[in-house]
C-alpha cells in the first residue's frame, strides 16, 4: 500500500508540473484551430467544448460484455470490457451478496445504489478493490475503471490535440466514466436512479466533471482531490491570455463544472495532513462550489482514503442514496 501511494504521489507531482508548464501557452503566440478562426464551440464526433470551456458529450450505452463472476468476500466480481471513444476499456463490476444498505435495511429483491469508482493516477482497478470491497460491505455496487494511462495525464499533449480539433485524452477519460455509469445502470441488481460518482485524487477530478455532466446521478464524492485554479490563473494573467488555450484548460478543470452539480451534492473528504495535495487547495475548490455541498476533514497522514474517513463516507453515501 505504501509503495502504491508513493507511486501515485510521484505521478501526481509530475502531472502538476506538466500542467503548470502548460500555462506558457497563455501568452505569446496565438494558436488557431484547424478550421481557422476560433468558433464559439469546438466540436467533433459526439463531443464539444463550449466557449466557456464546458465539455459536452452525447452519451449512449456502449457495447460491453461481462465475464462470469467470482466470489470475493461479501460480493461477486466480474470483469467488464466496453468500447469507449474507439478504445477497449476494462473495469471490475462488484455486486454485494448481502443486500443490506447503509440504512441497515436488507432485502434480496431490492435494487441497490451503484458507484462509479475512479482510482487515482497510477492506481489500477485491481489496486482500488480495497475501497470497492468496503463499499460492497456497506451495500453499494460499484464499477471500477482502469482509466486511460492508469489515470496519468499529459496536459500539454492534450492541448495540442485540442488546438488541432482532435479529442483530447482527458476528455475521453470523462466519457469513460459516463459510459461506466450507463453500464452500471443496466445491471439488474442496481437502481439506475441511484448512481454516484466517487474518485480518489486525480480520479476525484474526473468524478466531479462526470457528475456535472450526468444529470441523472445522485452526486459526487471526491476524496483527496482539488481543482487546478484555472480561472484564478486567467484573472492573474490580465488580458495576456490565449482564448483557445484558456478554453481547453477550463475544460479539464473540475472547478469549471462546480456550478453544474446542484441540486446534487458535492461532497469532499480530505486530510489536513495529506501528503500530496495540501488541504488548503481542497478548501479553495470546495469554496467555489454551490450548495448543497459538504466538506469533511480528517487527520490521517496519507493521501487517499484512510480509516478516519469511514464515518463521513457512510454518512454521505446514505444521504445521497
Uncertain regions: pLDDT < 50 for 5+ in a row? Answer: 1-39
Name of the CATH first level: Alpha Beta
* Beta content: 15-25%
How much is the radius of gyration in Å? 19 Å
Which architecture name does CATH use?
Answer: 3-Layer(aba) Sandwich
CATH superfamily: Alpha/Beta hydrolase fold, catalytic domain
For this structure, the CATH topology is Rossmann fold
**Share of helix among residues?**
25-40%
Shape: globular
Q: Distance between termini? A: 30 Å
> Order of helices and strands, N to C?
HEEEEEEEEHEHHEHEHHEHEH
Number of domains: 1
Total beta strands: 13
Structural class: alpha/beta
Give structural notes.
The protein is of the alpha/beta class and 321 residues long. The protein has a single domain, classed as Alpha/Beta hydrolase fold, catalytic domain (Rossmann fold, 3-Layer(aba) Sandwich). It is built from 9 helices and 13 strands. It has helices at 2-21, 129-137, 155-163, 169-185, 202-213, 230-236, 243-251, 279-288, 310-320; strands at residues 42-44, 47-49, 55-57, 64-66, 70-72, 75-84, 87-96, 112-118, 141-145, 190-200, 219-223, 266-271, 293-298. Strands 4, 5, 6, 7, 8, 9, 10, 11, 12 and 13 form a 10-stranded mixed sheet that branches. It has a 3-stranded antiparallel sheet with strand order 1-2-3, covered by helices on one side. Helix 3 (155-163) crosses helix 7 and helix 4 (169-185) crosses helix 5 (202-213). It starts with a helix and ends with a helix. Residues 1-39 have low confidence and may be disordered.
